[in-house]
UniProtKB/TrEMBL annotation:
Database matches in Gene3D superfamilies: Di-copper center containing domain from catechol oxidase (1.10.1280.10)
Protein name: Monooxygenase
Signal peptide coordinates: 1-15
PANTHER family attached to this UniProt entry: TYROSINASE FAMILY MEMBER (PTHR11474), TYROSINASE-LIKE PROTEIN TYR-1-RELATED (PTHR11474:SF126)
Tyrosinase copper-binding domain boundaries: 86-103, 250-261
Region (Disordered): 276-298
Length: 335
């Protein structure tokens, strides 16, 4: 009898994807709280910034170019995988894992905390005044100055990343100063397109009952609007680093995507059945005829990370309170 039970157990484990980490899906006992940048202490912000600057100076893991740093590796990985990680169901778990890889890179630089988020919902009335843009306890402000910057928007003028020189534009080597091009608002629009991620707008996104309906509205609405608001100013032509596929060039990317992850977490918390809710379709191969659809997604799908980190499995990144992730967020607080 024991032999039969053991055989059945081996068969069940063998049927799982080889990279699935069963221990990782167990609940953690003390999930850490990821904080809003605006509610973190000055000491917590400065510790994060010190580690983030460290990541921009550490040697590359990918070794694609002699001038590459570890921070460049994040931008390159995101750019290479661009088609496969956007505009389909995997957008949310892939970026959840990506932020976790970055959090671990910060911790390798001596940081003791967790990833933090830019609460652009709370800041939507005037996002240019957010604490994240502080020149001392934030990421510096908009691009500016004089001169010809080629294909790039004006470089960032202050803050700890004003001398940061990202290596890539999309996947091409194109070293340049970190650049931003804030949309300063026009007509009825709020600055940085804040009218597209107000509490009312985001509440409507959260009201979606299906995972892929929620993902699609979040990705194409508030998420995209923040990218464009920071990087595509009206009347200034050239784009900043937060818009191309190499958008992790701008360290604010990780606070932005931690906020995206927080909204997914809030959506999941609204109904216990949503913890593993995952539906939709993969994108078809690039160049496929219009209207062609990829196969249905599953919790066993791979989350590719190139050589930046081991590939993940979607099911390992659905529950933030498992041993694989072990964190949580403040709940909805905009009513």
């Amino acid at each position: 009898m024991l032999f039969i039970q053991f055989t059945l157990l081996v068969a069940a484990v063998s049927a799982l994807p080889s990279s699935t980490n069963l221990a990782a899906r167990q609940a953690c006992t003390s999930p850490r709280l990821r904080k809003s940048w605006s509610k973190a202490t000055v000491e917590e912000r400065l510790a994060y910034l010190e580690a983030a600057v460290c990541v921009t100076k550490k040697p590359s893991r990918l070794n694609k170019h002699e001038n590459a740093t570890l921070h460049d590796d994040f931008a390159y990985t995101h750019a290479v995988l661009n088609y496969d990680i956007h505009s389909f169901a995997g957008f949310l778990p892939w970026h959840r894992y990506f932020v976790m890889v970055y959090e671990k890179a910060l911790q390798d630089c001596g940081y003791k905390g967790t990833a933090m988020y830019w609460d652009w919902v709370a800041d939507s009335d005037n996002a240019t005044l957010s604490a994240v843009w502080d020149p001392v306890t934030g990421f510096g402000g908009n691009g500016g100055g004089t001169g010809n910057h080629g294909n790039h928007a004006p470089p960032v003028q202050d803050g700890p990343f004003k001398d940061h020189r990202p290596l890539y534009s999309d996947t091409a080597v194109d070293q340049h100063r970190l650049c931003r091009n804030w949309n300063r608002g026009f007509d009825e629009n709020k600055e940085l397109f804040g009218h597209k991620y107000t509490p009312q707008v985001v509440a409507e996104v959260l009201a979606n009952s299906s995972y892929d309906g929620f993902r699609e509205q979040l990705e194409g609405g508030p998420h995209a609007s923040v990218h464009f608001g920071v990087a595509v100013g009206s009347g200034r032509g050239k784009i900043g680093d937060l818009v191309p596929s190499s958008s992790p060039n701008d360290p604010i990317f990780f606070l932005h995507h931690t906020m995206v992850d927080r909204l997914w977490w809030i959506w999941q918390q609204a109904d216990e059945s949503r913890t593993n809710a995952y539906d939709g379709f993969h994108r078809p191969p690039q160049g496929a005829p219009d209207g062609e659809q990829g196969p249905p997604v599953t919790l066993d799908d791979i989350l590719p990370m190139g050589d930046l980190a081991p590939n993940g499995i979607v099911g390992d990144y659905m529950d933030t309170r498992n041993a694989n992730l072990c964190y949580e967020y403040p709940k909805w607080e905009y009513d």
